[in-house]
Amino acid sequence: MFEAAEYIGIIAFAMSGFFVAARNKLDLLGVLVATFLTALGGGIMRDIAVDKLPFTFSHDYPALIVIVVMLLMILFKFHKRNSIENRWLFMLSDSIGLISFSITGALIALEYNFNLTGVLAMAFVTAVGGGIARDVIINEVPFVLKTGFYGIISLLVGLILYIFEMFDLITFASITIVFFAALTLRIIAYHKKWAIPLR
Questions:
Q1: What domain range is 131 assigned to?
Q2: Which of 5, 47, 151, 191 is the most exposed place for a label (fewest CB within 10 A)?
Q3: Residues sharing a CB contact under 8 Å with residue 26, sequence separation 6 or more, in sequence order
Q4: What is the per-residue pLDDT for 87?
Q5: What is the per-residue pLDDT across 99-153, written as a single tens digit (0 to 9) for each?
Q6: What per-residue confidence (pLDDT) applies to 199?
Q7: 88 belongs to a structural domain
Q8: What is the pTM of this model?
Q9: Rounded CA gap, 64 and 136, in Å?
Q10: Contacts for 29 with CB less than 8 Å, ≥ 6 apart
Q11: Which residues contact 171 (CB under 8 A, 6 or more apart)?
């Protein structure tokens, strides 16, 4: 369950990281750094927070997945397409990554018996930590700070899984339902331009 969500998140965030790098016209090294940070940064932060050897450092698959995704994106010349053409695919890949990593962050927190605050924090950091690191190094305001409902979805996933754990309802089926419900909510929020107003 954990590994499936982890790999889905890595693939999805590798794609979204590539799109951001291409939009900012980074060179090959810049694309590599941005893609790796987006795909793997949040998971590394999550594992360090629980004093665990990061999944990325103990398994070869995460790095291989990122490299393969990046090579495929270059092969199909996604870096030469303008941002309008990539917008839908970027939103979808980023949303899938957001939700997948929110799930893995919450599951790790529950495994280590974190309270509600800990579960929410781990879901959030795992989901957006890599993206924040990426945006900081390319001198952009982090995406999560500009789109209010983006981070809220991560917190909702953490809250729901915490409640499920209280009633012993965490199964592959329940997590799958949470995944698709959160993805649907994210797509609706994107199209409706939902945000948390400042005032």
A1: 2-192
A2: 191
A3: 34, 138
A4: 77
A5: 999 999 999 999 999 999 999 999 999 999 999 999 999 999 888 887 768 899 9
A6: 59
A7: yes
A8: 0.91
A9: 25
A10: none
A11: none
